Amino acid sequence: MDASVVARNLPYLADGFALTLEMAALSILGGTVVGVAVGLARAGHMPLLRHAAAFYIELIRGTPLLVVLLVVYLAVPALTGQRLGPVPSAVIGFIVFVAAYIGEDVRSGIASVHIGQIEAGLASGLSRARVMRLIVLPQAIRRMIPALFSQFVRLLKFTSVASVIGATDLTGAVLAVNAREVKPLELLAFLALAYFVACYSLSLLGRWLNRRFAIAS
Amino acid sequence: MSYAFDWGVLWRYREALLGGLGLTLALSLLGLAGAMAVGLVAGAAGAGERRLPRLLAAGYVELARNVPLLVHMYFWYFGLTALRLPAFWCGVLGLSIYSGAYVAEIVRAGIQSVPAGQRAAALASGLSQWQVLRLVIYPQALRIVAPSLAGLFSQLIKDSSLASVISVAELTFVAGEIEGDTFRAFEAYIGVTVLYLIIVTTITQIALRTFRGGIVDPEMRY
Questions:
Q1: Which of A42, A71, A110, A121 could be a cystine partner for A131, CB 3.0 to 4.6 Å?
Q2: Which residues in chain B touch residue A77, judged by CB atoms under 8 angstroms apart?
Q3: Is A1 on the interface with B (CB under 8 A)?
Q4: Which residues in chain A have Cβ-Cβ distances shorter than 8 Å to B172?
Q5: Which residues contact A213 (CB under 8 A, 6 or more apart)?
Q6: pTM above 0.80, yes or no
Q7: % of chain A at pLDDT higher than 90
């Protein structure tokens, strides 16, 4: 083992790690916003929106992430003639992908709130939107913390796939360094360790938030 | 935007696509078998009373599932080049070790969901430790976890697409070849999307009918 290969290339690898974290943060943010919208549409009472959301969720949940990225990066540009770079394509792909899973989590979070509470809220004169905002969502979001964070951790791991379409994220950086230095074991050990630290920290944060805000059911 | 679609390209490459489909299914089935083998042992150790096996099982679960699947595959493919494993088996190993951690968590939860009193009663009525596991605990635990395992299988089918990166000629890889030959990126990738969708939806529906309960997404568990 020769750990100096990591030390020698540390600035380059650190840039890759920064890009990984940046892509993950953008996708988590975007995916949560889109996912909540999809979940609300899926749980709502407008038939067209409900069916559209259900179709979107089923479509994406039946498709591998790599294929979603390839569709965004290669297939759609073949149609429109305009290609985005690997990083924006990957982020769009991640958002489209994770929003379907988060949408489903939001739907089941909303469904977990007892119907009697909604009826009581409506009967006491609150509008549908207010019932959702003041009664349903505060409880649903707290129940969703474990599911949301397992999606976030999964997304953080999945950002590695961006390297396949040419992003120099952490995985892409390690592959580039290895092409020059040919020290696969050392570099892969470093790669695994870096992901482990990032993912495990994120999941510990999720567990802590869940303990802090959980509702006894 | 004037794009002339040519969906016939999928029909012309039908043999390559069928071959890719076969490899995708082979990867997923062997990956599932491997993940079950690893997961049953690690899950039983994780639910057991002995401290050392429990710690080892927990270490494996956390390590395996906090590292991306792609890194698992690279590890077998060019981390351990000395082994000279064929790419297909690197894919199977990667899928097995990665998904094994999820199976372990599912199995552990299943074993722990069998009330402790049953174990005590079975031991008291004279069964051996191994008989208790085989005759009392496993039959109930496996029935409880069956829907989750079905969910894991459809996850594995999707995950197996990453084997294309280490040059296994499964479905996603074939789509790349079609694109390279014909420049028909749209038809190729939308075509394989539909194929994945059909397989995954079929399996999910069969599982839903068989088990009636909801399919639990294995990624949902910490």
A1: A121
A2: 185
A3: no
A4: 64, 66-67, 70
A5: A142, A145
A6: yes
A7: 78
* Average pLDDT estimate for B152-161: 92
CB-based contact, B83 to chain A, within 8 Å: no
**ipTM computed for the complex:** 0.89
Which pLDDT value is given to residue B49?
Answer: 82
Q: Is B210 on the interface with A (CB under 8 A)?
A: no
Q: Which amino acid is at A10?
A: L
State the smallest CA–CA distance between residue A130 and chain B in angstroms: 30
| Cβ within 8 Å, pair B71-A192 | yes
Q: What angle do CA A56, A92, A169 make, to 5 degrees?
A: 135
> pLDDT tens for residues A139-192?
988 889 999 999 999 999 999 999 999 999 999 999 999 999 889 999 999 999
**pLDDT tens digits for range A2-23:** 788 998 999 999 999 999 999 9
Tally of domains in chain A: 1
Helix (H) or strand (E) run with residue B76 in it: none
A112 near B CB under 8 A: no
Any idea what DSSP says for residue B13? T
Query: Where residue A44 sits, what CATH number does that domain have?
Result: 1.10.3720.10
Looking at chain B, the whole-number percentage of residues with pLDDT higher than 70 is 94
Would the CB atoms of B71 and A203 count as touching at under 8 Å? no
Q: With the C-alpha atoms ordered B120, B125, B126, B131, is the resulting torsion angle positive or negative?
A: negative
CB of B150 within 8 A of CB of B212?
no
Whether A64 and B159 lie within 8 Å, measured CB to CB? yes
CATH topology of domain B15-220: MetI-like fold (1.10.3720)
| A61 in reach of chain B (CB within 8 A) | yes
* pLDDT tens digits along A102-123: 999 999 999 888 889 999 999 9
**In angstroms, rounded to a whole number, what is the distance separating the alpha carbons of residues B120 and B103?**
26
